[in-house]
Amino acid sequence: MIFFLQRTTMKIDLTKKTILVTGASRGIGRGIAEALGRSGATVAVHYRKNKGQAEKLAREIGNGSNVFQADLEKPEACERLFNDVIRAFGHLDVLVNNAGIFLNSPLDSDNWLADWNKTMDVNLRAAGLLSRLAILHFQQRVGGRIINISSRAAFRGDNPEHLAYAASKAGMVALTKSIARGYGKNNITAFLIAPGWVKTDMNRETIERYGEEVITKDLALNKLTEPKDLAPMVVLLASGLADHATGTTIDMNAGSYVH
Ligand SMILES: NC(=O)c1ccc[n+]([C@@H]2O[C@H](COP(=O)([O-])OP(=O)(O)OC[C@H]3O[C@@H](n4cnc5c(N)ncnc54)[C@H](OP(=O)(O)O)[C@@H]3O)[C@@H](O)[C@H]2O)c1
User: Chain-wide mean pLDDT for the chain?
Assistant: First the structure.
């Protein structure tokens, strides 16, 4: 008896999908936006300060992509951002909550409380507010997807100077799971990506101080993760091919923390 194996190719086409990526002017968000664009998506490239880089990226992506400014520390700016995107593109299919900050705040800092609040506002409250607006929008359509960029710090914890950071990223875990559990029947899915070290501006100082080799020793792989190493996972999640993994966390930390 001869078995013929049918070879299938998985090809991801995001043409006609409109995707908002927060913090897309640099780093991980930029890598995600580029990969989504290469798969045909129209990307709402969100930025706070780096207008020039965001505009260049939107031009490079093409597919009708455009830039949107907002300081996500301000709740009213989150709402304006979402409404601006809907006004410009007519609808949204996927929200990627990526923008984040990593403030160094030792316990004896005079700014400890201000840093705590700012971290929660940018990393968690903005993701919550944008998710709320996205869910309300998705409920009026055919559904949609939310992809939250958290951190291994949510599970492993971080150092004493980054208590707020770890707590904000852990909040994203519960946010993601609750959305997945609550809105799956509306065809709304939610996923969490938990990166470890990623080579971006966020930890440029640490990399420069200790050297890439020292940080790499902490990994199972022999190369520090770059934004392009995370981006394909977001493309897959955005496509809908992984919807039955809704609520899940995808650890992408080069094996530095396996739990
Ligand atoms: N790098 C890592 O090792 C690592 C590890 C785990 C998780 N993460 C998470 O991955 C995400 C992206 O990190 P990254 O390394 O790419 O950071 P990054 O290189 O520092 O870039 C941060 C991005 O967020 C935007 N942003 C910062 N503050 C903002 C605010 N108040 N309002 C709106 N946008 C703001 C920035 O916009 P402008 O440049 O336009 O101001 C920029 O696009 C973050 O959520 C981070 O916590 C990073």
Answer: 96
What is the 255 CA–ligand 1 centroid distance (Å)? 22
Closest CA to ligand 1's atom 17: 202
Pocket of ligand 1 contains residue 165 by CB under 6 Å: no
pLDDT score recorded for residue 259? 86
Tell me the whole-structure pTM to 2 decimals. 0.97
- CATH class of domain segment(s) 18-199+228-252: alpha beta
Ligand 1 pocket check for 50: Cβ under 6 Å: yes
With pLDDT > 70 as the criterion, what percentage of the chain qualifies? 97
For residue 55 and ligand 1, the question of a CB distance below 6 A is answered with: no
| Catalytic annotation present for 165 | yes
Residue 10: the pLDDT is: 83
Query: Residues 58-81: what's their mean pLDDT?
Result: 98
Token couple for 243: 């919807």
